[in-house]
Amino acid sequence: MRLDANKWTVFPGYYNYLHVFRASVVKLLPRKSKRMLSAMIIFFLFVVFAVSNIFMIKRMLRLQQYQSFVNGDDIPRMRSDTAKQNLSSTMSIKELISKYKSDQIILQDIGCHNGFFPQISSANISKLQPIMLTPFIKEKRRLVFAIPVVSRHYILETMQSLFSSFCPCLREQVLFVMMFANPTDTEWLQNTAVDILSYFSKEIQDGLLEAFIIPPLWHQLLLPDSFNSTFRDSNERMLWRTKQNLDYFYLMNYASRKADYYMQLEDDILATAKYSKTIMNYINLKEGGSWFSMLFSRLGFIGKLFRSDDVKYITNAIAAYYKIKPVDWIFSDVERNLFCSPEYNDGLCQEACSASRVTVIPAQFQHMGKSSSLNGKKQWIKERFFNRSCRQCKRRNPFANITSTMPTHSSHTLEGGYYTYDFMWFTSVNKGDHLMISFGYPLKLTGILMVSGVDPALHDVFSSDTQLFAVKKDKNEVLLANFTIHGDLMTRLAGTEVIALILRVNSNHSTWVILAHIEIDVE
């Protein structure tokens, strides 16, 4: 039996390996069995190599799809014929926009900014209402994620990332609001709306996702035909950033009414596996604090969270300066005006602004798009601390002596997890083990947060029978909370005086345990 090398060109190099292996084995066998066994060996190896190549090809396709997403290329997608027919059977997006007349006035006070927007004072307010693609959600939630969507091809991957990592336990507390900000790009809008209605029909039905189109009249009235350039920007860039300011204003004005807390996202991001639970834990922990913003990413407006009542400071500033400055500069002005005294030097001003922020590391969102909404502009920025710790960044936890019966990985120590934005990584966790945080003197605590099972080891969590105790001045221990089934613990305290905290393990753990986001708030 002879192998024909021409038949093996699909598998480069395999012919030589098979031939050598066959020759070596055949020499050791009786002559009668050589032909049959040789054929069996070759057939077996052919199957092995074929299967391995199938997996290799699948992996290459996945990498190609990922790279297409990163590069902003259009990815072939299977669309739902049902959703497409439902949309086209009523009217097209173009007809929907042109014939839309709102019977329900949602933004009743859109005219309150007439001082800044005199163009809308005589406009028909019904023509300035959002054009709803999904049912309008009346119930107010705890948190709203607001996502402006422009004519790019990232939004499906973004929403898939957000929903696949979303904790079902928060469905009643959270709402995602998606605003399509290019109403004149009807072909893109038609295709994207069909995709959204198709892929996320369950989220829409469950009241988790609301989508609308910004009314065309909004841009027609407020976008000028020509610009007085500021900061030497071109006319194209002036148009882009002015439109972005108007988009942000409309979205913030609309979505901030939907919940107690407002978070701004973008349409080209990825989320961590536990982003929703982490964000909600920080909201619950810091509720009532003196912060102005929480930063779950450091890039632009991605992952910025505000109390909804405070969003008006930003929208008022946007209304005043939307033709003059980009939105991130406007936000910086808002911070400085709120927290910097005119008597402060730059150093004191930076300290005051920093004190008004709650910074969360690891970051919960990563910027993935490379094609900017500004034509011809590429965005190469990445979040440095996405799913990564920062040992140079210091937490604001009170000074304490930290001890544990659980050994830690050499590079992830007790002190690193407590004093910096790193994590503790316990390599052996068994019943009877404990972690003690001793302050040495009574402290009035207002809140405690601990999260186990973060990247790079999502399953390295404390079990739900792991408990946290407070040690009072009289040495008595008081149970504060158990870890949840998701591996996190958050408790609020009304200025309770404690001298130490003890985490007690009540069962053997088969895996290591990562403990991160250790936040101890004091009065």
TrEMBL record:
Signal peptide: none annotated. It holds the Pfam family MGAT4_cons. Keywords: Membrane, Transmembrane, Transmembrane helix. This is MGAT4 conserved region domain-containing protein. It comes from Cylicocyclus nassatus (Nematode worm). GO terms for biological process: protein N-linked glycosylation. The chain crosses the membrane at residues 37-57. GO terms for molecular function: acetylglucosaminyltransferase activity. Residues 122-385 form the MGAT4 conserved region domain.
